[in-house]
Design brief:
heterodimer, A: alpha/beta, Rossmann fold, 13 helices, 17 strands, 16% strand, globular, B: 300 residues, mainly alpha, ABC transporter involved in vitamin B12 uptake, BtuC
Chain lengths: 380, 300
């Protein structure tokens, strides 16, 4: 049984409960799973995908599992994310929370979640997040230590690149990915010949592309958010830079591909954890069709990963977990077969260990899977 | 790098020209009501979405029968936004007329937030692409590549800036608008309808934001969160140019566009940003009235 509370009704109910002296824990037997994600601001596409994936999982909770949830917008600042988490903790005792994809916000929320003893279920790729020794962080999207291996190896081993150039975001997401890419590329004997950090607000990328071209690279690596990824590819193509592009996971998102023409997409590949719209597995097809019907948009890997993460929380409740601590212990110790992949904690909260590369053929906006990288970090 | 200089300059001037349109609307409202319109950036964003919808509607209705879709969408967007400007004036300014400027600029912040969240709720967070003014193509002269859209943006923005200047300096309507901006009491004593002039100023300011939004929505896409960036650049242009100076704002906006692009190309984006704000601080320190001096001796 699922009941969805709007924010206003939650507040009203809280006031009624306080007035009648009913302890908040006794209000309902449902597990409370707040969704604290950015649905406005420059990372809203990814955050909205997260929200939709979490909602689809919660709305399809297994029989016998009763859940309530509410959505709070964390926007783009750590302060707003911390406020959203604090308010969720004040409203009740969550068994877990779907938490922001934005690493900067996760780094701010992590200590609060640890103090409160509430697991955060995220798809943030920021590597540092699971290096903090915080047992309440669970990342269901492969971290940079996994996807950047696929990113770099595909460029070097499959495309034969020897002189890669990188454009990355100035955010913690961008810097984390840049550090991993640089380390892996150095190890593969193909060090970066050019790199530049771009703020998410940068619209005109020609200056960076001009310098990039002058460095004479043989492949362009992008580690940018969705809009900037599309801008970089479009402006590169318009400037006559026809080098192959291997982009970050933002490029696999259907909303990003929609901004580019098939001709501009030719020669573009992207790393990702999955690509639901590219798969023919019946379970994934069913997920995709329900997602389309429910949200009137295409699902991406972030939506699927968040869906799998929340499903693992629901599986723990189904298996008898009653408190946040029970859920944390279950997530830490069990293997879960999700729709995208098999999830298992590496002891630090990294649950996802597979990655793939999708590529566009220049004719269709739907990419095809070019290469799969299984169990990259050897945890499974 | 040398062969890229022409395109970098074109990009810088196009960016600056779009900033100038935003800044002009900003100055018009400052002069008319003595308060900063903090919704100007979000109005640019809203006009980007208006351009997207108009283009989709015209394409759906007439298919390929509409030649130069962008050329048709630009004035239509300005018209729609002028209507929104009238509504903006009636809802966010008129009820607060005579109140301290702080009431008005808080009201404009609220309008900006409403536009931002309405766009997010209505269109979703993903960027959308507006129509190209002429065509999304490039001109090649040997190794030099120039974007047709950027050249068209410069041309359209130049015409609109010149047109705004001519309207304000050479027409009776412009004289009335300026008279109300300079001294509303005296203007009303001379029979000019101040409220109507202020409403017309809002319409013109928001129509200019509309032009900027329509022009930028093709090259740089448009997303609900874009307003803040445009607002910041317009504010800097107005401060650098001289508070209340239309010519100063346009000049400063062009300088900012070219400075940003060239500095990013030859140093880095981070340096361009830091030096822009550093330059702003220097101007405020050594020449607080801006590059061309203030026309109104009050800052909100």
């Amino acid at each position: 049984m699922i009941r969805r509370f709007a924010y206003a009704s939650t507040v009203a109910l809280s006031i009624l409960c306080m007035g009648s002296g009913i302890p908040s824990q006794a209000r309902a037997a449902e597990a409370y799973v707040p969704i604290l994600v950015p649905i406005t601001g420059f990372i809203a596409i990814e955050g909205t995908a997260q929200r939709n994936g979490a909602i689809q999982a919660l709305e399809n909770a297994p029989d016998g599992v009763s859940v309530t949830y509410e959505v709070s917008d964390t926007s783009t600042s750590p302060e707003v994310a911390v406020t959203a988490l604090t308010r969720a903790l004040e409203r009740g005792k969550p068994v877990a929370a779907a938490a922001s994809i934005f690493g900067t916000q996760m780094l701010a929320m992590a200590p609060i979640a640890k103090r409160a003893g509430v697991p955060l279920i995220t798809v943030s790729g920021t590597a540092k997040l699971t290096e903090l020794g915080n047992p309440y962080i669970f990342r269901f999207f492969p971290g940079d230590a996994v996807v950047k291996v696929a990113h770099a190896r595909y460029a070097v081993e499959t495309l034969g690149a020897k002189r890669p150039a990188l454009l990355y975001q100035t955010t913690s997401y961008g810097q984390s990915g840049r550090a991993e890419l640089k380390r892996i590329l150095d190890g593969l004997g193909a060090p970066l010949v050019f790199e530049e950090a771009l703020a998410p607000s940068v619209k005109d990328m020609l200056p960076a592309l001009t310098k990039l071209r002058a460095a004479n690279p043989d492949v362009i690596l992008l580690h940018l958010h969705s809009g900037p990824t599309a801008l970089a590819i479009r402006q590169a193509r318009e400037a006559g830079i026809d080098l192959p592009v291997v982009a970050g996971s933002a490029m696999h998102q259907p909303t990003t591909a929609k901004l580019l023409t098939p001709a501009q997409l030719k020669g573009v590949c992207a790393e990702s954890a999955s690509s639901p719209i590219s798969e023919s597995d019946p379970k994934l097809v069913a997920f995709t069709e329900e997602f389309r019907a429910r949200f009137k948009t295409e699902p991406d890997a972030f939506a699927l990963a968040q869906h799998d993460g929340i499903n693992m929380v629901l599986a723990s409740i189904k298996d008898g977990a009653e408190t946040a601590e029970d859920v944390r212990a279950w997530l830490s110790s069990h293997v879960f077969e999700g729709l995208a992949m098999t999830y298992k904690s590496d002891g630090k909260g990294n649950m996802a260990h597979d990655a793939l590369i999708v590529c566009y053929d220049g004719a269709s906006p739907v990419p095809s899977v070019a290469k799969r990288f299984h169990n990259v970090d050897g945890v499974l | 790098m040398a062969e890229a200089i022409p395109q970098l300059l074109v990009n810088g001037i196009a960016l600056g020209a779009a900033y100038a349109l935003i800044a002009l609307g900003f100055v018009l409202v400052i002069n008319a009501v003595g308060a900063v319109n903090f919704a100007q950036g979000d109005l640019v964003m809203a006009s980007g979405f208006a351009a997207v919808i108009l283009a989709e509607t015209l394409s759906a209705g007439f298919g390929d029968a509409v030649p130069a879709l962008g050329l048709l969408v630009l004035p239509l967007t300005m018209l729609v936004m002028a209507g929104l400007g009238l509504l903006f004036s009636a809802l966010a300014y008129a009820p607060l007329r005579g109140r301290p400027p702080v009431s008005i600029f808080i009201s404009t912040i609220a309008v900006g937030l409403i536009l931002h969240h309405a766009a997010n709720a209505g269109f979703g967070p993903e960027p959308r692409i507006g129509p190209a003014l002429l065509q999304a193509d490039t001109l090649r002269f040997g190794s030099v590549v120039l974007s047709v859209q950027q050249i068209a943006v410069i041309g359209a923005a130049g015409l609109l800036i010149a047109g705004t200047g001519a309207l304000l300096s050479r027409t009776q309507l412009g004289r009335r608008l300026r008279a109300v901006a300079q001294d509303p009491e005296i203007a009303e004593a001379m029979g000019i309808n101040g409220a109507r002039c202020v409403a017309l100023t809002f319409m013109l300011a928001v129509a200019l934001a509309g032009a900027a939004g329509a022009l930028l929505s093709n090259q740089f896409f448009v997303a609900p969160g874009d307003g803040g960036l445009f607002m910041l650049k317009a504010y800097i242009a107005v401060t650098l140019g001289g508070w209340g100076r239309l010519d100063g704002a346009a000049l400063a906006a062009l300088l900012i566009g070219v400075f940003e692009v060239m500095m990013a190309a030859y140093v880095s984006y981070v340096a361009a940003e830091a030096l822009l704000y550093g330059g702003l601080l220097l101007v405020l320190f050594f020449r607080p009235s801006g590059l061309l001096g203030e026309t109104i001796q009050r800052r909100t």
